[in-house]
Description:
Blueprint: E1 11-12, E2 18-20, H1 27-41, H2 47-66, E3 71-78, E4 84-95, H3 104-115, E5 120-126, E6 129-142, E7 153-165, E8 171-179, H4 185-197, E9 199-200, H5 219-224
Antiparallel strand pairs: 1-9, 2-3, 3-4, 4-8, 5-6, 6-7, 7-8
Helix pairs in contact: 1-2
Amino acid sequence: MPTETDFPTLWLTLPAGFTTVDLDEDLGDRMARAAEGLDALFPGALPEQKLSAVIAAETALQAQLHEGAVHLSSCLVRAGDGEPIHGMFAVFVRPQELGPHGSYPDRAAEELARAWPDADVGVVELPIGRAALAARELTVPVPGTVWGVPDSTVSTVRQLELLIPHPWSPRVVAAVFTTEDIDHWDDWLPLLATAFRGIAFHPPRDESLDQLPPEQWDNIRKAFG
């Protein structure tokens, strides 16, 4: 599915459990629908677990919108031990001078390592190309109004951020996953690998192209499709 952004158009193929959020939906309708989805998927979950998941999802969504997200998915799956776990997957498109061709991922990884010395930082190979990757834990404030109480609290989350240079414009695609379910991080990793491999700058390749002479193939689309 393409994201709703002016440029560049992104195509995302997401794993089961990643549900695209309608960014234009009414707040009350969205939260009610999320609660209904939880009831259907996890009928045995406690009411406070469901309420916590709905509020956490909406709080994260509003923060991501404020930062200019072009795509949001609510990620609700069952861990290996049967526990329902929740996260948010967001995609941003940010203006960025990329420097010499192919240099951005390594340079970005070095910058992230300096900025976040406690993070796990590296460069990964994806079908779309090389990308910088950083995983870290951080503390985020939770306003008391979220829970209907006067005092605010804090929450520890784990975040994984992938930075992909756009191949023909000065932009970076940032895919960011955040979850409070840190104890189930190993359950998230294969799903995130699938989500990251599903990011593309072109729609899925039309297999009929293979019936054409090679000189008529769209080489860029062939490579990224």
